[in-house]
Amino acid sequence: MKDFIEPKVSVILPFYNNPKETIRAINSVKDQNYSNLELLIIDDGSDYRDKELDSIAFNDNNTLIIKNKKNMGPGYSRNIGIIHSKGDYIAFLDSDDEWHPNKLKKQIYFMCTNNLEASHTSYERFDKRSQKVKSVFSGKYECKLPWSAFRCTVATPTVILKREIALATRFLEDIRFMEDTIYWLNIASKTNFIGLNINGCRVYVDDDTAAFNKKNLINGMKIIRRNYFSSNFFLWITHFFYCKIRGI
Questions:
Q1: Are 127 and 185 within one domain?
Q2: How confident is the model at residue 41 (pLDDT cuts 50, 70, 90)?
Q3: Which residue range forms the structural domain that includes residue 232?
Q4: Are residues 226 and 121 in the same domain?
Q5: Contacts of 178 (CB under 8 A, 6+ apart)
Q6: What is the largest CA-CA distance in the chain?
């Protein structure tokens, strides 16, 4: 890794009405021991702004804030970020999460040395209510169909993609739940989506987190069945009863 030439990475970071948490996420990007990056911050129609956040972009030529005219949702915002990106790779970060300092360097090196178009890492999950931290070893596993359509543990801030495959795949813009999971499954249908078992980031969760919302999970699983299993009755019915057993 000593003589590793860093390819350019575009970091896509949408936010909506949570500038303080967004600044924490931005600082985790700035603290990376990786220099060849650009940061695209997508303001998804926030009702208010923070002077500190604006000054970050003003004082850094490698940071750009793009403002949506109205709140369009995370899928639309990430698609806009990808379109405006200039990097060789696309990395995703949610505004209420944060990366660990070595995340980019280790993951990009892993992708380059293994000629990968898509990768994700393990992470730690911080429960805001209980203040407890739990390690999630999702990086031990490849995101692969059809298995990941049943249980996908890939977290958005762990993912890095080659720009070409990110541009060829779009986040769904008409839903605001599980749009990331459906996007990962689309990526997995096109290329090897390999895991790296390092703790790449901290993901903050609470009762409002989409992944823990039962109604959102039910609707998301219906979309997954429609998109991936409509032509395979065995997988469709297996997925349907799997969700019933899990209570979703």
A1: yes
A2: very high
A3: 213-248
A4: no
A5: 210, 211, 216, 217, 219, 220, 223, 224
A6: 56
